[in-house]
Amino acid sequence: xxxxxxxxxxxxxxxxxxxxxxxxxxxxxxxxxxxxxxxxxxxxxxxxxxxxxxxxxxxxxxxxxxxxxxxxxxxxxxxxxxxxxxxxxxxxxxxxxxxxxxxxxxxxxxxxxxxxxxxxxxxxxxxxxxxxxxxxxxxxxxxxxxxxxxxxxxxxxxxxxxxxxxxxxxxxxxxxxxxxxxxxxxxxxxxxxxxxxxxxxxxxxxxxxxxxxxxxxxxxxxxxxxxxxxxxxxxxxxxxxxxxxxxxxxxxxxxxxxxxxxxxxxxxxxxxxxxxxxxxxxx
Length: 283
Prior knowledge:
The protein is mostly beta strands. It has 5 helices and 18 strands. The chain has helices at 19-25, 30-37, 112-119, 223-230, 277-280, and strands spanning 4-11, 17-18, 43-45, 48-49, 55-56, 61-67, 83-86, 90-95, 126-127, 136-142, 156-164, 171-174, 177-179, 187-189, 197-205, 209-216, 253-261, 268-272.
């Protein structure tokens, strides 16, 4: 048996249920249960070895030590992420800000992938489109391999953003973007970057902020944030690119509309998510 890859902590909220039935209700697959039985201290209850047939009591602390050979992503049953659409092959979440899509250093159990693993423990997580951790809105994932056959370039997306300042008029920003010198995170407008095109339409606002509707023609990392900052209108809350930080605690960016052809049925799917209240308050 391989080394322990991840540890999952649960607190039983039922009385008089077997460990196996409780864990199955929590989405733990039979394959994982078999692996846990073969792992030293694979399942413990209140610090003591627990068998699958043992009866749990409400409040019992259950710890699973899932072996490396089992693979997969740690399920997080505490993440409550709204679902906008779901069928046999795809699922679309309304991702809150602060939730990363994929695991990364410092974010191993609080991602969209962890929420997906809790709901579908025997399926691989395949994100079809990706959003920054502090960008909210529609995020599509495949539940099956055929469901992943949606080219990102074929997904029509509309973003809503709140920028600092009074944005003057509709604007098409066509400026190449590349990695900023000396930084692994920041991007910048630079001649040797990749082509990036952003269409910006001001909607409403005040002297301090403007609500924008944004349609991308390309999908570069931080594209909206970089283009607006370079134009002199950084996103509210975007400290990385010069936005005001006093009125909102994240970049004011939301993926609010999405359209695509279903990879199985061929049906045109259109989804939407309302602009979050923290962004609405600004304007």
